[in-house]
Every structure is written in C-alpha cells, then in structure tokens.
C-alpha cells in the first residue's frame, strides 16, 4: 500500500474523513472540506456533481485510485468520493499526488 492510502487510513482513524456522495456534497457546501478525492472509475454523473460543487466552493479535487482502493484505504467497502476535513492531512495528501 502506498503512502497516500496510509495517510487516508490515518485520517480516517483520526475522524477527519467523510465518505459518500451525499455527505461529501453537504460538507463541501458547509465549508468544512479541504480536499476531495474522487475515484478514477466514478460514474460521469457523480463526477460532474462533485467537480461542479468543488469548483463552486473552491475545494481542491484529486482523481486518484479506484473505488475499491479508496474504500480499502479507509477500511470500508467501495468508496467513490472521500472528503478530508483537516487542512494538515489535506496538504500531506496533495504532496504525494504532485
């Protein structure tokens, strides 16, 4: 498992991760999200909703991994979208992707 997935798991254990399309959209609107990760195999409709909302609220979005990989990283079943609510974790994750 790579470092990004390890960071996601750590953030999940710290309670700084939100997953699921509805919950992520709600938290993006509330301004509590610092980074959104979207699975590369997300449906086009989901992709459009998430990217449009992140663009509107100026939240960085990263396309990374499959839904199985993202889910496994946070100890859940398949997850298409994950939001990071902690600025420190968000910065660390962005460093690994760049």
Automatic annotation (TrEMBL):
Query: Which InterPro entries does this one have?
Result: Ribosomal_eL30-like, Ribosomal_eL30-like_sf, Ribosomal_eL8/eL30/eS12/Gad45
Q: Name one Pfam family in it.
A: Ribosomal_L7Ae
Q: Does the keyword Mitochondrion apply?
A: no
- Organism for this UniProt entry: Paenactinomyces guangxiensis
What protein name is recorded for this chain?
YlxQ family RNA-binding protein
SUPFAM superfamilies given in the database record: L30e-like
Q: Which GO terms describe its molecular function?
A: RNA binding
Q: Which UniProt keywords apply?
A: Ribonucleoprotein, Ribosomal protein
State the superkingdom.
Bacteria
GO CC terms of this entry: ribonucleoprotein complex; ribosome
